[in-house]
Amino acid sequence: MTEQRIKQLSSGRKTDGNLKKFKPTTDYDLNGKRVLMAGYGDHKPVAEEVVLAHNGNELCLYDEKTRGKGIQTNLNKAITHADIVLIMLNSVSHNTANHAISIAREQHKLVAATNMNSPLAIEQAISRAINHQPIYVPSHHIVE
User: Fold this and answer.
1) Which of 2, 12, 14, 135 has the fewest CB atoms within 10 Å distance of its CB?
2) 3-state secondary structure (DSSP) of residue 51
């Protein structure tokens, strides 16, 4: 089912005739967890491929700049329905990022942040959250 969902997502995007499918570089299993991505609403399909490739249930979205189907407008409610909170630092305000971290900690949610929207950065941030590593690691820092 995950494979089929990834194909559906990929086929909806315009490509050069090739289906682009995310191939995991980090070994972890989300075991059906829900991931909330705070920010980068336009990049949901890319992040969703990462979540589905790691056996996640779904990718939820909170974006203070974008409105539409499947996008939460209440940060507290969005975090309540997620297992893992991923904060996209370049697309949310400093206040929102701090508030999201605070809410996630109060609700005992796994949380991580990244300032890049690439699939690899998203994958690594989720891995940090699962492994209880620092919430934020500069992009030039290598996590081992």
Assistant:
1) 14
2) helix
